[in-house]
Amino acid sequence: MAGNVIRIGNVELVSLSDGNGDREPTFVFPDSTNEIWQSEFSGLLDDAGHLHPRYGSVVARSGGKTILVDTGLQGPEGMLLRDLAAKGIDRNAIDIVVMTHLHPDHVGWNLTGGKPNFPNARYLVPRSDWEYWKQPQVLSQSDHVVEQVVPLEGMDLMDLIDGDYNITDELATVNTPGHTPGHISLVISSAGERGYILGDVAHNPAQAHYTDWNPVFDIQPETARSTRHAVLDHLEAEGITVSAGHFPDPGFGKFVRQGGRRVWQGL
Ligand SMILES: [Zn+2]
User: Fold this and answer.
1) pTM score, whole prediction
2) How far is the CA of 63 from the centre of ligand 1 (A)?
3) For residue range 25-43, what is the model confidence (pLDDT) as tens digits?
4) How far apart are CA 249 and CA 53, in angstroms?
5) CB of 51 within 8 A of CB of 34?
6) How far apart are CA 179 and CA 161, in angstroms?
7) Cis omega before residue 250 (within 30°)?
8) 69-96 average pLDDT score
9) Which phi-psi region, left, alpha or beta, contains residue 34 (left: φ > 0; alpha: ψ -120 to 50)?
10) Alpha-carbon separation of residue 57 from 24, 144, 199 (angstroms)
11) Domain locations in the chain?
């Protein structure tokens, strides 16, 4: 157990949580079966056979900047702001907020009551996701974007970013489309060490082996599947340390090969 803080070269990562969901695994992954979950992944299930995906965020300290990746859901039990405070991170000291994509569980604490929770930060939004969600027929059904993203533009706090954007010298974004059209992940390269902030390229450790399983939330399933294969193959082959927001707390680990199959090995 690595605890909530790891280092990749000179970059410090702090794992944060906004709480956990409660889902039936075959709802999340329609291609999966309860038999497989019970026989191979019982440790990920509660007594009722449900998954409890974490709403995870991560803070990266890099190049003198404090960068928050994703802002949770802000549901009734949401705890991200409390978790930040408990881990000694002042939300006024966040310089940059990066959203991996514009789903409700990744933008939830951008604002509360119309006021930014990270008032001194620039909020970075993937341009392709912004263009997807601002289409009138999509936006009219996406209250979370209306409430948590659109106001940032009016307050001049939002910057649209394209793929391969350098946040610092050792932290950059990379396009990993499919879960959403503009989904991004983050690549860390510092002092000879490498790390990867996954976003929703994968939702559950079971996808280490069952990489074909698309969560029901993937907007472009075929693209998401090929992205997932390419990214997980790369992370496994290179032995890169991963931060996975929906994986069990704290979400740090590696994809490794054991007994002929790929597994998630938490730190
Ligand atoms: Zn998500």
Assistant:
1) 0.97
2) 27
3) 999 999 999 999 999 999 9
4) 9
5) no
6) 18
7) yes
8) 97
9) alpha
10) 23, 17, 9
11) 5-266
